[in-house]
Write a structure and sequence with these properties.
Blueprint: E1 3-8, H1 11-22, H2 30-33, E2 34-38, H3 42-49, E3 59-64, H4 66-70, H5 78-89, E4 95-102, H6 116-121, E5 125-128, H7 137-150, E6 154-155, H8 157-167, H9 171-185, E7 190-191, H10 193-199, H11 203-214, H12 218-228, H13 234-254, H14 260-267, H15 271-280, H16 286-304, H17 311-320
Parallel strand pairs: 1-4, 1-5, 2-3, 3-4, 6-7
Helix pairs in contact: 3-5, 7-8, 7-9, 8-10, 11-12, 13-16, 14-15, 16-17
Length: 321
């Protein structure tokens, strides 16, 4: 079989690539023939790489290798690296091996190509998975259309544009929305703009809600929230607001020292959207944004730990207290 080296800051595309390899395994023995190791020590790693052929079909081994390539010092001795290279060049016919390094999003980290392990892995099926820039609409659009095709549905151009406008470059969330839209469209197989509008929360919706909270217009904020839960689960709204708040707080803190282009890079927002957002936030105190984010995080922890009596009420309290 083959050896693969997948790395980059778009973890969802890496997950999809692994899932594609996993799909060729014999489903009757999938649990036995799929193994994942997290930065194993040399002895465990070399044993995994030299796994003998199985009698139940192909096998897939995934090696999460972040520590190998992101630590300050070399993880393996030269003799160990020689053994690893030899094992990879002579891996059994029935074995697929995938080394994975997921880099933090929006930090612009790169792997050190001078490292011996990098050079070894780069000899094989090496592929970098980069996050789509938010302004590269054509690339995100092409990805959405391909994912729709994989799900045996199609999506109109205006529907694709609206999805990108609402969600941006979060591929995992985009894929989740496509799954929902497929159910809404059934028995038809085409996604329309109206369908996207029916389930999507826009950035403007979130901005309106957050502004009302910050302005202490709590009655109107609760009405706005009730409108949103007709489209989304409260936890999804919580997550969306927290993501937005994180970006806003970054903008407020960093805007004194960084240009709009630099702010766009660290937040994943388009430069035009950065300028527009900073204008809207001109009279909003950073402390208010931080306090709201803390309240929402506390509510999320209560909900996920089953300590909330009612999910909707817990979110409402976090929004207005």
């Amino acid at each position: 079989m083959a050896v693969y080296f997948y790395y980059g800051d778009e973890d969802y595309n890496i997950d999809l690539a692994i899932a594609k390899l996993q799909s060729i395994l014999n489903p009757d023995f999938a649990a036995m023939n799929f193994q994942v190791f997290d930065n194993p020590e040399y002895q465990t790693l070399i044993q995994a790489l030299r796994t003998p052929p199985m009698m139940f079909g192909n096998m897939l081994i995934v090696i999460n290798a972040e520590k190998y390539l992101l630590s300050q010092k070399n993880y393996f001795e030269d003799s160990e690296l020689e053994d690893i290279e030899d094992a990879l060049k002579n891996n059994p016919e029935t074995l697929n091996i995938v080394f994975v390094v997921k880099l933090p999003r929006e930090e612009n980290k790169k792997l050190d190509s001078r490292r011996k392990l990098y050079k070894i892995l780069n000899q094989f099926n090496s592929q970098e998975f980069q996050t789509f820039k938010t302004y590269k609409i054509a690339e995100i659009s092409a990805w959405i259309k391909q994912q729709a095709k994989n799900k045996n549905i199609s999506i109109k151009d205006d529907a694709t544009s609206l999805l990108i406008e609402q969600i941006g470059n979060n591929l995992r969330q985009l894929d989740t929305e496509l799954e929902k839209l497929k159910l809404i469209a059934y028995p038809d197989k085409q996604i329309t703009k109206d369908m996207v509008s029916e389930i999507s929360i826009s950035n403007q919706d979130l901005f309106n809600l957050t502004e009302l909270i910050i302005q202490s217009r709590k009655d109107k904020a609760l009405l706005e929230f009730k409108k949103l839960i007709d489209k989304k689960h409260p936890l999804e709204i919580l997550s969306a607001i927290q993501t937005m708040l994180r970006k806003w707080i970054l903008l407020k803190i960093k805007s004194k020292n960084l240009s709009s282009i630099e702010l766009a890079k660290i937040t994943g927002m388009h430069e035009f959207v950065v300028k527009q957002t900073l204008t809207k936030l001109k009279n909003t105190a950073t402390a208010d944004l931080i306090r709201l984010k803390e309240n929402l995080f506390e509510a999320e922890c209560k909900i996920k730990s089953a300590n909330a009596l009612d999910i909707v009420s817990e979110v409402e309290i976090a929004l207005i207290k």
